[in-house]
Design goal:
Shape: globular
Radius of gyration: 15 Å
Structural class: alpha/beta
Strand order of the largest sheet: 1-4-5
Oligomer: single chain
Mean pLDDT: 92
Number of helices: 3
Low-confidence stretches: none
Distance between the termini: 41 Å
Largest sheet: 3 strands, parallel
Number of strands: 5
Length: 127
């Protein structure tokens, strides 16, 4: 067993991306897999983005991680990042549902992706 004694595996680090629709992993907006609480890994056979058949970690696994890092670049992500990071939606987008219970959550964005955000940001220069 890879994670002895754990009901849900606890990863030290997950590095994730986010799609322009707010999906992460293969968890898409409005999809029933967002409600999956029993499985660690789940199959999706009706993905709205090719390929239609995929596998994904579930939200309980993502939220059990010690650290989750999202990486997003480009102006095409700006609007969805504003919704994820500043929105207060009744049905949050999948990436907005990633909130590690006892871990850290970090976002690494380039200036284009962050251009619509009004929350305070830490800027770091490129080496």
């Amino acid at each position: 067993q890879a994670f002895p004694g754990e009901d849900v595996p606890v990863f030290d680090l997950l590095v994730l991306g986010v799609g322009p629709d707010g999906h992460t992993c293969s968890l898409f907006p409005g999809h029933p897999l967002l409600q999956e609480n029993e499985k660690i890994v789940a199959a999706i056979t009706d993905s709205p983005k090719p390929p239609a058949e995929r596998i994904t970690l579930t939200l309980p696994v993502l939220n059990a991680a010690r650290m989750v890092v999202f990486v997003a670049t480009g102006e095409g992500k700006a609007a969805v990042l504003k919704r994820i990071l500043e929105g207060d939606e009744e049905e949050p987008l999948p990436a907005a549902r990633v909130r590690p219970r006892s871990g850290q959550l970090l976002w690494f964005l380039d200036e284009s992706a962050a251009k619509e955000l009004t929350v305070p940001l830490e800027k770091h220069s490129v080496l």
